[in-house]
Write a structure and sequence with these properties.
Layout lengths: L8 E2 L2 E2 L32 E2 L6 E4 L5 E6 L6 E8 L4 E9 L5 E6 L12 E8 L11 E8 L4 H9 L5 H8 L2 H14 L4 H12 L16 E7 L1
Parallel strand pairs: 4-10
Antiparallel strand pairs: 1-2, 3-5, 5-8, 6-7, 6-9, 7-11, 9-10
Helix pairs in contact: 2-3, 3-4
């Protein structure tokens, strides 16, 4: 599918692309999708919805995370957040997955500790194919860092309507809120063509075009969690 370039209008469509912030990469190399597994059907792998450098910025104390989960025979996944150069477990939980493949999400709950401003956290999502040997389970990883918004940006966000929020966050390089805002528009109006195309353009702009047309599930639920 051909998309209009960023910042242009065509048939009422305002293109939506992510502008990566000018900053360094995470402390260590974070991986993308892992190799296949006997519990995954087909050639598609788990894919995290994060920028190419694997670091997503956020303003939120408890941001929302997104992943693509292919057809799998298992129904649970383990989410783990580490802090202090991977020395401490910041938060962990077990998620219940949907019965069909697609893009799933999870928001850190109120029971989780808030992310500290200026601190980077390393996260892992692991499909629990083998509860006895986790080394064989498919896994993806990435980083999240909470930063403080500038006052001018805070003022702009405070007066913006829901349709403008994805563009404002994307222009500022705030990944988690940009993705959450554009996903919320899809949840609220799933058949709206502009929302569908903006979603695809947003994911394509960071190299996630392979999963841009996958269904978006409004889930997931945590079975149990722990934090420190």
């Amino acid at each position: 599918m051909q998309f209009p370039s960023q910042g242009t209008k065509q048939d009422g469509l305002i293109s939506q692309a992510f502008k990566p912030p000018k900053r360094g990469s995470p402390p260590v190399s974070a991986g993308g999708s892992t190799r296949g597994s006997v519990c995954i059907s087909g050639k598609q792998l788990i894919t995290p919805l994060i920028p190419s450098n694997k670091l997503g910025l956020t303003f939120a104390e408890r941001p929302k995370f997104f992943w693509y989960v292919p057809q799998t025979s298992v129904k649970t996944a383990k989410l783990l957040l580490l802090s202090d150069a991977d020395q401490n477990v910041f938060y962990e939980t077990t998620l219940t997955l949907p019965n069909t493949p697609g893009i799933v999400s999870y928001t850190l709950p109120e029971s989780a500790p808030p992310l500290a401003i200026g601190k980077t956290y390393h996260w892992y999502l692991t499909l629990v194919c083998d509860a006895q040997d986790f080394s064989t389970n498919p896994r993806v990883e990435g980083w999240v860092e909470r930063i403080q918004p500038e006052s001018s940006l805070s003022e702009k966000l405070a007066t913006a309507d829901a349709r403008k929020l994805p563009y404002i966050y994307a222009e500022a390089g705030i990944w988690h809120e940009a993705l959450t805002a554009i996903a919320q528009l899809r949840y609220s109006e799933p058949k709206n063509l502009r929302n569908i195309l903006n979603w695809r353009q947003f994911l394509t702009s960071v190299g996630l075009n392979a999963i841009a047309s996958e269904p978006l599930h409004d889930c997931c639920q945590a079975e149990n969690s722990a934090s420190k």
